[in-house]
Every structure is written in C-alpha cells, then in structure tokens.
C-alpha cells in the first residue's frame, strides 16, 4: 500500500535575531527574545487573523528547515540528559524527526496589518531566522495548560546559577546596541547563556571560548564554575 502524500506550504517566515542554530534556547519562552512572523500571500490576509488579537499566546507549527535534509534516527541523545542517554525520538523534541516539524508556544505582542502585509510580533521564540511557519493556532488556557501533567525527565526549567559578568568592553558595546536596537540586550544575553548552549561533551572545559550570533553580533563567552563571562560583543564578520 502506497503512503499518502500530504503536501504543505509555508504560510509565512520568522524574522528573528538568531542567525545560526548554536545559542538558540532549546525550548520556547526561556529568553525574552522578540521576533516577527511575516505571512505571505495568499495567507497575508487580514481575514485570516481576525480574532487572533484576543490571544495572549499562540502556537507556531514550523519546519526544522536547517536540519530537514539530515534524516532521522529511532533514538537520539538529548542534550538535557548530558548527551549520554538515548531516548526514543518520540520522547524528545529533537529536530531530527521522521517529519521535521516543530511546535512552539510564544507570546503574541501585536498584529500589524499593512496593505498586503500581515506581521505578528511575538516574544519567547526559539526559532532560527528564516524558519518557515506551517500553521498558527491560538493557545487555549483551559485545555492547553495541564497543571497535573508530568514528564520526569524534564520536570523543571534548568538554568545555570552562576552570575553573568560582562567585561568592560562588552558592557559598553551592549549598552550602545541596546539603545540602537531598542532591546534589553543584557537581559536577553544573560537568559540565553544561563540556558547553557555548550555541547554536553565539552562542558568540562572551562577555558574554552564560544561565540553565539545574535542581532548580527558575535557574542563571545566562557562558562566557569564561578561565573559566565561575556568577553566581547562585536559585529559578526561572517554574515
């Protein structure tokens, strides 16, 4: 028996400050990053979002476009478990799936309808810039919020407790960029780094310097037992 085909089209795309996968929080809502969903024709229609303004939060169904061609495996090593334990792919939120589809709950800030353009301002997105959006659904508190739900392998948010310390040059750059971007950049950087973006197998190397790309800036940092050092913030010359 042949498998049925279910063709899908992107209804829009994400515009976010995340230029590469490394550094993106592994779940939505862990950093107060603002992004924009831009709908494309024929979905850029004011009628299509009528009533959505009553939602505080929405679900984004999206395509893991950066890994869609990488295939999948029945088991994966979740970073949350240190990369040392294998779980079934359906017990994880790994992007390497039989169908590379993801789901994120984000805060809806505003809906802007401008001629043939429909843009949704959102907060808490964990999506790479340019990610295709396949669908948008309202978050329903009475059914989507389940206080008694359990998952023992991921029962709480895990954040590093070390203080985030900016070097004098990084602090100066951060202050200027915060004004230019009109964003709380220091808070956003602290939230992202507290999620510990390092690969699990390299976390013992406290001398290694990493870089994440955010708003076109290369943010270089180091994580030790005592603190999280933001070493420098400079334009990303690779973009």
UniProtKB/TrEMBL annotation:
GO terms for biological process: methylation. The keyword Protein biosynthesis does not apply. SUPFAM superfamilies: YaeB-like (SSF118196). InterPro entries: TrmO-like_N (IPR023370), TrmO_C (IPR041369), UPF0066_cons_site (IPR023368), YaeB-like (IPR040372), YaeB-like_sf (IPR036413), YaeB_N_sf (IPR036414). Keywords: Methyltransferase, S-adenosyl-L-methionine, Transferase. Residues 8-148 form the TsaA-like domain. The keyword Membrane does not apply. CDD domains: UPF0066 (cd09281). It holds the Pfam family TrmO_N. One of its GO terms (molecular function) is methyltransferase activity. PANTHER family: TRNA (ADENINE(37)-N6)-METHYLTRANSFERASE. Belongs to the tRNA methyltransferase O family. This is tRNA-Thr(GGU) m(6)t(6)A37 methyltransferase TsaA. It comes from Marinobacterium sediminicola.
């Amino acid at each position: 028996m042949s498998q049925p085909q279910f063709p899908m089209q992107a209804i829009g795309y994400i515009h976010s400050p995340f230029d590469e996968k490394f550094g993106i929080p592994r779940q939505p809502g862990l950093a107060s990053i603002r992004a924009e969903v831009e709908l494309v024709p024929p979905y850029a229609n004011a009628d299509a979002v009528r009533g959505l303004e009553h939602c505080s939060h929405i679900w984004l169904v999206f395509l893991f476009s950066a890994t869609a061609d990488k295939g999948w495996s029945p088991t994966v090593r979740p970073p949350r478990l240190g990369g040392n334990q294998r779980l079934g792919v359906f017990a994880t939120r790994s992007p390497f799936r039989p169908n590379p589809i993801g789901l994120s709950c984000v805060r809806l800030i505003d809906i802007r309808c401008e001629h043939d353009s429909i843009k949704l301002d959102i907060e808490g997105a964990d999506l790479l810039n340019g990610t295709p959006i396949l669908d948008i659904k309202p978050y329903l508190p009475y059914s989507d919020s389940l206080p008694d739900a359990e998952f023992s392998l991921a029962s709480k948010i895990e954040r590093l407790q070390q203080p985030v310390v900016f070097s004098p040059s990084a602090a100066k750059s951060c202050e200027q960029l915060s004004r230019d971007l009109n964003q709380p950049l220091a808070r956003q950087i602290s939230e992202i780094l507290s999620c510990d973006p390092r690969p699990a197998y390299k976390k013992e190397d406290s001398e290694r310097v990493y870089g994440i790309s955010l708003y076109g800036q290369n943010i270089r940092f180091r994580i030790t037992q005592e603190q999280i050092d933001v070493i420098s913030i400079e334009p990303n010359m690779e973009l």
